[in-house]
Design a protein that fits this description.
This protein has 169 residues and is of the alpha+beta class. The protein is 18% helix and 37% strand. The chain is built from 3 helices and 9 strands. Strand 8 and strand 9 form a beta hairpin. The radius of gyration is 15 Å and the shape is globular.
C-alpha cells in the first residue's frame, strides 16, 4: 500500500475544542483555506522550527485566535489523528484537545474568520468539512474524556475510512 501513497508534505497541527459555560462549542467560520467558508474548531500548525509541543501550540493558538489564556492543565489531549492525503495535498498529524475551562465570551472576529457558539446538535446542520462530519465530531463525541489514536485515508475519490489504532481509557 505504501508504494501507492503519493509523497506529500507532512504537516503537524492542533485543534482545540472550546465551550462556553452553557456547553456550546466555539467554532470559527473560516475566511481562508484550508476549510474556507466552513465552520471548524480553532487550531493551527505547530512551530516545528522552535520545537513547539502540541500542548504549547494549543495554548498559543487559543490565545492568538480568541484572546483566551489557557494553561496546559486546562487542556485534555483526547485524540491523535494521522490523515493521509488530505484534499490530495498533504498528510496531517492532528492533535485534538478539549479545553476543560469554559471560554467566557464570544471572541472578536479575526483575519482567519468569525466565531459562533453552537450546540453539538446544531453543528450537524452547519456547513463543516466532510472529514469533520464523518470523523472529527464522532471522535469528539465518543472519546473526548479518554484518548484515542486514529488513522484516516483522506485521498480524493476514495471513501473516508478512519481506523482506531488504540484507545486508552
Amino acid at each position: 500500500y505504501s508504494a501507492m501513497t503519493p509523497s506529500y508534505p507532512y504537516k503537524i497541527a492542533v485543534l482545540v475544542f472550546l465551550q462556553n459555560a452553557a456547553g456550546e462549542q466555539l467554532l470559527l467560520l473560516r475566511a481562508k483555506p484550508p476549510n474556507l467558508g466552513v465552520w471548524s474548531p480553532i487550531g493551527g500548525k505547530l512551530e516545528t522550527s522552535t520545537g513547539e509541543s502540541p500542548f504549547e501550540c494549543a495554548a498559543r493558538e487559543t490565545h492568538e485566535e480568541t484572546g483566551f489564556t489557557v494553561a496546559h492543565d486546562d487542556l485534555h489531549l483526547f485524540a491523535m489523528i494521522a490523515e493521509k492525503a488530505y484534499e490530495g495535498e498533504s498528510h496531517w498529524l492532528l492533535f485534538l484537545f478539549r479545553c476543560k475551562k469554559p471560554i467566557p465570551a464570544l471572541p472578536s472576529d479575526i483575519a482567519e474568520g468569525r466565531f459562533g457558539f453552537y450546540t453539538r446538535a446544531a453543528i450537524d446542520t452547519l456547513p463543516i468539512p466532510e472529514t469533520d462530519r464523518t470523523a472529527l465530531w464522532p471522535t469528539y463525541d465518543r472519546y473526548r474524556d479518554c484518548f484515542v489514536a486514529l488513522r484516516a485515508d483522506c485521498a480524493p475519490g476514495k471513501p473516508l475510512r478512519a481506523e482506531v489504532e488504540q484507545v486508552t481509557p
